[in-house]
Amino acid sequence: MSKTPSALVLGGGSTGCGIARDLAMRGVDVTLVEKGNLTHGTTGRMHGLLHSGGRYAVSDQKSATECIEENRVLRRIASHCVEMTGGLFVQRPEDDDEYFEEKLQGCRECGIPAEALSAEEAREMEPYLAEDIERAIRVPDGAVDPFRLCVANAADAIEHGARVETHAEVTDVLVEDGEVVGVEVEHASDGGSADGLDSFVHGEPGTTEELYADYVVNATGAWAGQIGEMADVEVAVRPSKGVMTIMNVRQVDTVINRCRPKGDADIVVPHETTCILGTTDEEVEDPEDYPEEGWEVDLMIDTLSELVPMLSEARTIRSFWGVRPLYEPPEVGSEDPTDITRDFFLLDHDERDGLPGMASIVGGKLTTYRMMAEDIADHVCERLGVDAECRTAEEPLPGSEDFSVLRDWMDEFGLRSPVGLRSAERLGSRIDEVLGEWDGPNPTVCECEAVTRAEIQDAISQSGTELNAVRIRTRASMGNCQGAFCCHRMANELVPEYDEPTARDALDDLYQERWKGERHALWGEQLSQAMLKHHLHATTMNRDGDPAATGEEIDFGAFDAGESEGELSDTSGGDRSGDAVADGGRRTRTDETEGDADGDS
Amino acid sequence: MAIREDVLVVGGGIAGATAALAAAESDAKVRLLSHKKSTLRQASGLVDVLGAIPRGGSTDGSGAVSDGAAPADEGSTDQSELVADPLAAIERLPEDHPYRVVGADGIRNGLEIFDDVVGDAYEGGHTDRNALVLTHGGTVKPTARYPQSVAPGLASAEKKTLLVGFAGLTDFDAPAAAAHLDAAGVPFDVDGATVTFPIQFRDDALTTRFAKALDKDQSGVRKRLADVVSEQLDDHERVGFPAMLGDDAGEEVRADLEDRLGAAVFQIPTGPPSLLGMQLEDLLFDALDAAGVRISSGNLAVGYEANDGRIESVLVDQRGNEVPYAAEEFVLATGGLVGKGIDSDRESVTEPVFGCHVPHPEDRYDWSEPAAFGAHAFARFGVVPDGDLRPTDGSGSEEFENLRAAGGVLGGADTAREKSAAGVSLATGAHAGRRAGEEATR
Ligand SMILES: Cc1cc2nc3c(=O)[nH]c(=O)nc-3n(C[C@H](O)[C@H](O)[C@H](O)COP(=O)(O)OP(=O)(O)OC[C@H]3O[C@@H](n4cnc5c(N)ncnc54)[C@H](O)[C@@H]3O)c2cc1C
Ligand SMILES: Cc1cc2nc3c(=O)[nH]c(=O)nc-3n(C[C@H](O)[C@H](O)[C@H](O)COP(=O)(O)OP(=O)(O)OC[C@H]3O[C@@H](n4cnc5c(N)ncnc54)[C@H](O)[C@@H]3O)c2cc1C
What we know:
Chain B: This is Glycerol-3-phosphate dehydrogenase subunit GlpB. Chain A has about 600 residues and is of the alpha+beta class. In chain A, the strands form 5 sheets. In chain A, strands 5, 6, 7, 14, 15, 16, 17, 18 and 19 form a 9-stranded mixed beta sheet that branches. In chain B, strands 1, 2, 13, 14, 15, 16 and 19 form a 7-stranded mixed beta sheet that branches. A 4-stranded parallel beta sheet of chain B has the order 10-9-11-12. In chain B, strand 14 (about 300-305) and strand 15 (about 310-320) form a beta hairpin. The complex binds flavin-adenine dinucleotide (2 copies).
């Protein structure tokens, strides 16, 4: 044991990672242990909504106020994990008018910017909203990438001296003289390396290790009861499962909430190129073994298509389930899990159970993870006699300055973020400079790699007309379609700064360069793709027979000018047996009788 | 009870639809079987018959025209020569081209079926000559049939033209396209303007969103759009937009805009998702319904049963069961590499339903050319037909007595460079379907 006060954090979800970061920044010697990989638990299986607080503005104003506060903090410290999509609470004809007013009022009371929109205004924002909606409230909801967020917290903890041990399951809580002094962990023998994910296994695989610390924080979420049992204290977490269904495309660009008191299947969250529908709330016995049922998925689609009808026809990619670590003090005794507060609780086992040296943190939401971490870190510091201020709300997380840092860490933890903001990843701390100051529409230019106009323009400003360099900077045209759909769009981005012939040359160079690479994979699906690309660029666009490029002089008069333009008379058409029109001489039509069908047929 | 027809067409693209319609003319009972939506949703909606004779760029000589008069053009092997009279040009195609099998009459027959199907929705039928349409890439392309909404934009009509693009639509940049058309030598003045669509969609909204808004005239969008465009109009006589001017109510939208602008309004065909292509698909399927063709879609043909050189049934995968679809005559219209009528792996190229012979170079690196628009062998992959469009085996004899092939699944045509894709499908579909119908009802 070191002389600096030490703490052991159990659980590598958002809560545990947040606590580890906070304590490490305050100078505590921290070790975090996680039985799987980071985000292995609920954090890796959640909806990804960065709450504005609107959802709780009527039922739970304390949570609502915390949400809006943390929503603002995360936008500041973790901009690379957040997409501010905005959100709508949508009222259908069968939904209560009074509740709508209460919601609006509640938002205002909690300091959540909220604006009432007419149905027309809401549909202008989101054209696929149902025809018969009544109205909506606009709030600052967003999408958050939990994978990045956890890794960024863990990375910062490590940079502040923490040890992070994944694939290390706590198998016992060590109690000496009536006090918790540490835990026993089992280093997985298969986990890390077998799934090719993890390089953060320090312990010898297959061995057990006893870890000692001055204080132990149980942040194992839905599993907190199991750790409690190991120490003979009761932590009555009520795990409650929820389903989420991923759709094939991003049908909406705004978080869509149903404006009614409570219910299942009432939120759609856009994530990068997809949407995620959710969710349900059903208590389960075991956070790791519960039924995943088809009706839950049907319920998502059926209920949410009342808000966005096209969902009923859309393709779903897959569904997944997560388990909420809900907690309420035993004396409350809610029957229905939806009635259990979303607030978090700090259980000091010394005060509660007469077992010093350990506290559990349960409940809460991802959105408020930092605040939860701050609370428990305050508590731990007080117990350890550490006098240091919390700085996690001010100090940006690693990668929000320079994303390559976080990318390295993601690799290190073997984590890929399925719902990450890819452009933020590429741009890192330049994101504000590139995207933040972009004026005007910012459409996606390359869909496969999700590269937007602002990024292409940024790359052009650095690489000029060399589209191959733009490609390498941005990854545009390097996805599945190998540039079939975006090469010409990239070239379009060069205009008007550069003239059209320059843009055309740049396109030809890029197209040829891509083709060189494609030729090494030309069979099966890629060959079909190549044929599609050939059709798009040669058949539809005629880039191979483009007179501007071939220099071929076209006799425009030899071609059909349209029925209403009148046919060429036989004499002026001449003998066209030599069908090729590249005859050098450029005929101009003299007999044009505008808008007059001359009844040639 | 077993499913039994006179004629079974496998494949629901433009070739399969044409074959089914041609077969139905002989009063045969016809069924069309299709796995997925066809390539029409990706296609521009134009019907090319023969727009170009590719010049050189091939290693095996096919597809090249050895025009003694033209000097060998070393530097640009991937050029094509645009063609104004497609029917007269077919004799310049290589011997093994499907057009050489069905001839000019075959093309006429195919176009006749097409013209019947589309009625007023398409133009071009008044002449044998090709029209030059504007492409969204900013040049012109020869085509034989074009949607009504494309007609006012033909390049041979000398009218001062304004192209309009939208700030969030990256596929079409109007000022670049205008400059490009100028470089291509079009005989009219052309300008381009980028405007903001009056309704704010998300930044990368699909064209369908714009189209739907215009269809419904959501928030008075037609007037608002006309107002924005008229600021740029000056003395331009016609205005071209990317093909997103409405879907179901497209003609109404266009007429409305013409009215408000006092200028002709036309559409420029675009890439996927292509509204014009989808509209053509709808027209074809309406015609199939009207002709009494039964349609089974959603299931993949996976094999066949044959006896004595004749196919008895095609086996269709239905949730893991192979269900036989019996008929007298069969048409293979499963498309090319894109439609999945032709498949490939590292070693070989195959026709997956009947296992018909598909010739291809042994070395995979010979399947393509180093130049992106070269005379790629892969572009001509397909089955080899006899004089009656029956696929043949390696030795030149028919694979099956009662199987004919049509459309992209046929080899020998580089339909992309030739601008001949839909034309080949129509001509061979008409032939194969008519022959199948005749044989089945004899
Ligand atoms: C369906 C659903 C949707 C949600 N949607 C949202 C939302 O949109 N917005 C929002 O803000 N919140 C949402 N939440 C809530 C949010 O996901 C959770 O509150 C949060 O992720 C909890 O994080 P945690 O770190 O406390 O728990 P967890 O992420 O579960 O972390 C606990 C960790 O402890 C580990 N562990 C367990 N036992 C042991 C052991 N013996 N030894 C070592 N490690 C162990 C686990 O593997 C796990 O990684 C949602 C929750 C669910 C279930
Ligand atoms: C991007 C692009 C742009 C194009 N632009 C133009 C253009 O501008 N002008 C033009 O004239 N042409 C154009 N074309 C070509 C045209 O759309 C057709 O591809 C071509 O005419 C071939 O048509 P097809 O009917 O033979 O095949 P497809 O359209 O490919 O249809 C084949 C059908 O068969 C089905 N099928 C395949 N295998 C099976 C099976 N085993 N069982 C059951 N069903 C099966 C498929 O699902 C599909 O429905 C374009 C094509 C593409 C890809």
